[in-house]
Amino acid sequence: MKKRKEKAILAHLLFSLLVVIGVSVMYNNTHYGEGIGWIANESYEDTPEFAGQLKSDIDDIFNYVKYKEVFETNGKLDYSKFIIRVADGPGTTKDFTLDEMIRHAKSQGYYLNEQFKVSGGHPNKTGEDLNYQVVYRAYEPDFKAAEPGDSFQSIDQLSYEVLSHLGNYYRFYYRFIQNPGNLKFEIQYQNTDKDYKLYTNYPGKTVDEFKSLGKYLYVTGEALYVDSNLTSVPKNVSPELEKMNPYNNGNYHMSVAVNTSYPYKDAYFQAAESFDQMRLFFIVGMICLALGILGCAATLYMMVLLTGAPEEQSTSPLMKRMDRLPAEISLVLYLAACGIALLVSQLILFKIIHLFLSTEVWYYGELVLKVLILYVTGVSAVLSLLKQYKSGVLWKNSLLNKGLRTLLLYFKHHRFTTRIMITYSLFLIFNVVMIMAFSFLLFTYNDLESRILMGAVAVLFILLDLWVFHQMYKNAWQTDQINQALLNISNGNTTYKIDTRLFYGKERELAENINHISTGLETALQEKVRSERLKADLITNVSHDIKTPLTSIINYVDLIKREKIQDPRIQGYLEVLEQKSQRLKTLTEDLVEASKASSGNLKLDMTSIDFVELIYQTNGEFEEKFALRHLELVSTLPDDAMLIEADGRYLWRVLENLYNNAFKYAMEHSRVYVDITKEEDKILFTIKNISENPLNIRADELTERFVRGDVARTTEGSGLGISIAKSLTELQGGQFQLYIDGDLFKATVAFPLKK
Fold first, then answer.
1. CATH 3.40.50.700 is the classification of domain 603-752
2. For residue 308, is it left (φ>0), alpha (ψ between -120 and 50) or beta?
3. Predicted confidence band at 749 (pLDDT cuts at 50, 70, 90)?
4. 564: left (phi over 0), alpha (psi -120 to 50) or beta
5. How far apart are CA 144 and CA 135, in angstroms?
6. What one-character-per-residue DSSP string does 373-385 give?
7. What pLDDT digit, counting tens, does each position of 569-584 carry?
8. Cα 529 to the chain's mean position, in Å?
């Protein structure tokens, strides 16, 4: 693992070097700043360099025309031509020829070098011979002195000046006349067929032949536009042609063309070749930059993966001493190392760079070194923090975490009211300080700096108020979330949970406690449901197991009775056996039915039932039975039919259980009241009686299983009748309620009225 990381670091350094090479090649390219479109869409002839070179050469052409008139006679250099006129005294002048100026220059040691520049020193401007006023210069006929002293020059200065202009003439003549080049030109001023002036290095060619060379420019004295395919046409062409016109007419033209196939190795050829090289270098730089960036990204990704990974046969991540420091101290140390490296670079390394680079690229070399230092220290710091993060100690060991935990000690264990008082006090103090500072600045200073400072104070004040509003809003939102959670839990949604990640401080503790309550309630509810299910299964299984031997007992008792035994004592025993076995059978059936009713495991056949008619039938069924205990059935029933939606079989069982309950527990020689009333959209059936035994029990307890009003259990009954009646009523969509007032027992069954 360690070797893989070292290889990744080495590869990252190599790719970083490739990035530096690519950026350096592109940055130092002459086309830097033009984007990349010029690579595919631009040729040398479209570049500003070509336009600048052509403009310079056109200026030289005009200078050549001027020098040709100054230095030549009949197309040849004439050393005897008058060139300078100076004032020799009051009213007297002296003329100097070209030959005299050249010989004087030679006497002073001046000469033309291979580049046709004047060498041999410069004339002395402090000599005593500055007493000639220059009246006329053939090469500058329109010269006007800006100051009176500018008209006076020595012969040395004049000879140096003449030699300089002669060097310009020779340089152009050498480049474009004597030696063939890619630039072709022709200027012609014509007065008559025989009276004209022609200046050219491409004689006898037509305009179309000039245009066929490549880039061209054609100007006539009669046209108002310049015929050219150049991207940029020099603006001084027409003015210079008009200025140099010796005939004062419009019969002149100028043709300039550059042979873009570049058959001659002149300045254009070299510039075009350099352009192609720059294009190639730029493409190579782009490729290096792209490969370097991709390689740096890939190797950096590998370094991130390998940083903090455990070594072979190691169980904990690598943790160097630097990585064990708190994150803030590590960052400070890396910043200090970066600062020291930059200082050393400025004091030593920059000077070493200056030894190897030209002055023009000193800034770039220094910039590259600074970026490399920042990049290396930055990557090292990030990898160190990443190692701490993977080790799980980045936040744990940080000074910020320790400071926050220390600060929370002053707030976390205080009550809500105390925290609000402390927070509001701090907020109030800050507001008072800000208002005082703002008022002091407002009434004390009126300058611009003070106004800016007041604006900063006001902005800080507003930001703090907005932050306090945000905190208040967040606390209110947290309170709403807690209230919503309590409302859901109180409505029976015990699975509701609060997302505590959005809470802080005491509110988070409260939200977590509510979640614990919800979890506890849900667990208890699930346990209760599971317990009820187990109880129902137990009752069903036990009842089923009892039913088989019980059926055998009942059958054998019946068989014995058929033997017609005459012994009255045995007959009494058989009667007891039959009664108890039948009671046990009824109890078993009630248990199964109670279990099914409470669990809802019953199939209902809901139909429309006339509740009034059903009560009449039930009264008829139990009237004779009630007479056995001298109970008088008093009914108050409406004459009209009242329809409800219910299962007739199970509704009859509800009524049967209620009537049987009255038969068993009502006081003898009393009345049992039965009535049906209509309340809004409901039908209420009520049965009331006076209990024979004291009802020292709550009404809700009577609806539980195996609970009887006869606590002494002197009467027959299983304690399941009321529970079954309640479960069956609710299963059919009705409501079942009991009321106990002293010895008065009252049961109410309500169903929605079917319209």
1. no
2. left
3. very high
4. left
5. 10
6. HHHHHHHHHHHHH
7. 887 887 888 777 776 7
8. 48
The alpha carbon of residue 271 and the mean position of all alpha carbons in its chain are separated, in whole angstroms, by 48
The CATH class for the domain spanning 494-601 reads: mainly alpha
Whether this model's pTM surpasses 0.90: no
Closest by Cα among 362, 333, 329 to 345: 362
Taking residues 287-301, report their average pLDDT.
90
pLDDT tens column, 663-717: 988 999 999 999 999 988 899 999 999 998 888 777 777 766 444 445 444 445 5
Helix axes 611-627, 648-665, angle to 10 degrees: 30
Cross-strand pairs, 291: none
CA–CA dist 525, 342 (Å, integer): 69
Q: What is the dihedral of CA 165, 168, 169, 172, to 10 degrees?
A: -170
- In this model, does residue 164 exceed pLDDT 60? yes
Torsion angles phi and psi, residue 669, rounded to 5: 60, 30
Q: Biggest alpha carbon distance in the chain?
A: 191
Q: Which residue reads 């360099």 in tokens? A: 49
Average pLDDT across the chain, whole number: 82
| pLDDT, tens digit, 9 for 90 and up, residues 520-571 | 888 888 887 777 677 666 666 666 667 678 788 888 777 887 877 878 888 7
Output the six-digit token pair for 742.
């002293």
Q: What Cα–Cα distance (Å) separates residue 150 from each residue in 61, 89, 127, 196, 507?
A: 28, 17, 15, 37, 91
Q: Where are the domains of the chain?
A: 183-259, 317-409, 414-478, 494-601, 603-752
**656 close to 667: Cβ distance less than 8 angstroms:** no
Q: Which run of H or E residues covers position 663? A: helix 648-665
CA distance 273 to 260: 12
More confident residue, 319 or 383: 383
CA distances from 43 to 17, 29, 52, 218 (A): 31, 16, 15, 22
Q: Which residue has the tokens 């050498």?
A: 174
- What amino acid occupies position 264? Y
